[in-house]
Specification:
This protein is about 50% helix and about 10% strand. The chain has about 150 residues and is mainly alpha-helical. Strands 1-3-2 form a three-stranded mixed sheet. The longest helix has 17 residues. It starts with a helix and ends in a 20-residue tail after the last helix.
Length: about 150
C-alpha cells in the first residue's frame, strides 16, 4: 500500500523531492528552531503543515520532510504530538509507516537493483541507516525523471 501510494505520488507530481511535492500539494513547510526534535506534522482546519528543525543538516531536513509528508498523505487527520502528550495511543505504527514512506520516496530502486548495499544507499540518499532497511524492491521504477533531486 505505501509503495503504491508513493508510486502514484511521484507519477502525479513528476518528482520525488519531498519539498517540491509538499509545495505542489499546498502543504505549508516551516523551518523553525525545534531543539532536539527533527520535525513534526500537524493540521489545523484545512491547513496541513510540516515543521522542520532549521538547525538540522540538509540530509536530515530532506528525510524529515519526506517522513512528515508521509504523515500528511497516510495520516492526514492525525496530530502525533497531541497523541503522544494527551493519550495512551501508541504512535509506533504510524511512525514506522511514515519512515517507510520516506524511504520509498527517497531511495531509487535502481541503486539496490544494481547491487548497492543498504549502507551505501543510506549514505547516498541521506537517510538514516536504521530506516533504510524498510525499502521494498519492485521490478519497475519511477526515478527516471530529470526532476528528481537524486541522479545516480
Amino acid at each position: 500500500m505505501i509503495k503504491h501510494a508513493v508510486t502514484q505520488l511521484v507519477k502525479k507530481y513528476r518528482t520525488n523531492d519531498p519539498f517540491d511535492i509538499a509545495s505542489q500539494k499546498n502543504i505549508l513547510v516551516f523551518f523553525e528552531l525545534l531543539g532536539e526534535m527533527f520535525g513534526y506534522y500537524n493540521y489545523n482546519r484545512r491547513f496541513q503543515m510540516i515543521h522542520i528543525n532549521s538547525e538540522a543538516k540538509i540530509e536530515e531536513q530532506r528525510f524529515t520532510c519526506a517522513h512528515e509528508l508521509g504523515h500528511a498523505i497516510l495520516h492526514s487527520n492525525v496530530n502525533t504530538p497531541f497523541l503522544r502528550k494527551h493519550t495512551l495511543y501508541s504512535v509506533d505504527r504510524i511512525e514506522k509507516e511514515a519512515n517507510r514512506f520516506a524511504v520509498e520516496l527517497l531511495v531509487p530502486d535502481e541503486l539496490l537493483l544494481k547491487g548497492a548495499t543498504i549502507q551505501e544507499v543510506a549514505a547516498l540518499c541521506g537517510i538514516p541507516e536504521e530506516v533504510a532497511k524498510l525499502k521494498e524492491l519492485s521490478n519497475r521504477s519511477f526515478w527516471q525523471n530529470e526532476d528528481s533531486f537524486f541522479h545516480p
